[in-house]
Amino acid sequence: MVHLDVKKVGRIPNGGGWRAHGKGSPEARAAARARTRGARAGYAYLHSAIDGHTRLAYTESLENERATTAVSFLNRARVWFAAHGITRIERIITDNGACYRSAAFAAALNGAEHRRTKPYTPKHNGKVERYNRILAEEFLYARTWNSEDQREKALETWNLHYNYHRPHGVHDGKPPASATPLRVNNVLASYS
Questions:
Q1: What does the pLDDT read at residue 106?
Q2: Are 147 and 14 in contact (CB under 8 A)?
Q3: What pTM does this model have?
Q4: Cα separation of 88 and 157, whole Å?
Q5: pLDDT tens readout for residues 137-185
Q6: Which residues contact 39 (CB under 8 A, 6 or more apart)?
Q7: 3-state SS, residue 29
Q8: Distances in Å between the alpha carbon of 129 and those of 47, 50, 57, 135, 166?
Q9: Phi-psi domain of 164 (left: phi exceeds 0; alpha: psi -120 through 50; beta: other)
Q10: Tens digit of each residue's pLDDT (9 = 90 or more) over 97-111
Q11: Could you tell me if residue 136 is inside a domain?
């Protein structure tokens, strides 16, 4: 069973936002003036897939949350999970987002049963919602970022930390990768 979700986070302007310089700083005021003139930093969409048994997590920062993006992400997540020995996905659990209700996403399930959560009930997809909270607490807001590119590059390193080094309660303090059928020898290998 794989849990999917998208977390929408604000992009960081080049040079850092108000967290880097303070709310009353000249940089923060300049960014506020740029917003009033119509400039927008926009959003980054963190697509995440969590294996329900091992709690192995795969996350990418993507440009949008459209159906074609979700399908492409699902295909890359399948390849990544297969590299860890998780070759068969029986069920996929998502919320009721538009990208997961599309015909393109339904066609990309490859025989997996698609379960949707009850509307406005995120606890039904609790594993990925908890992962999103950990992601926010330990990665997104744990330090000051100077640009969106810097944060995107650090996301891959943080994923390695989460999957191979961070202790997890369900595995008696061992990381999620310890419960995978296949052990990956090179934790710095890229699966993209």
A1: 96
A2: yes
A3: 0.84
A4: 26
A5: 999 988 888 888 999 999 999 999 999 888 888 777 888 887 777 665 4
A6: none
A7: helix
A8: 12, 10, 12, 10, 18
A9: alpha
A10: 999 999 999 999 999
A11: yes
Report how many domains make up the chain.
1
Note whether residue 188 is domain-resident.
Answer: no
CATH of the domain at 106: 3.30.420.10
Helix residue ranges per DSSP H, the chain: 18-21, 26-36, 67-83, 98-101, 103-107, 126-135, 148-164
In-domain check, residue 189: no
Do residues 104 and 14 make contact, with C-beta atoms less than 8 angstroms apart?
no
**Chain segment 8-58, per-residue pLDDT in tens:** 998 887 766 666 667 777 777 776 777 677 666 689 999 999 999 899 999
Residues 6+ apart with CB under 8 A from 1: 51, 52, 53, 89, 90, 91, 92, 93
Which domain covers residue 29, as residue numbers?
A: 2-166
Helix/strand/coil for 170: helix
Gap between the Cα atoms of 139 and 170, Å rounded:
21
Q: What Å distances lie between residue 46 and 25, 27, 69, 116, 185, CA to CA?
A: 29, 26, 11, 19, 26
Residue 173 lies in a domain: no
**CA separation for the pair 137, 165 (Å, rounded):** 17
Q: Hey, what are 38's tokens? A: 């119509």
β 113-116/91-94 pair status: parallel
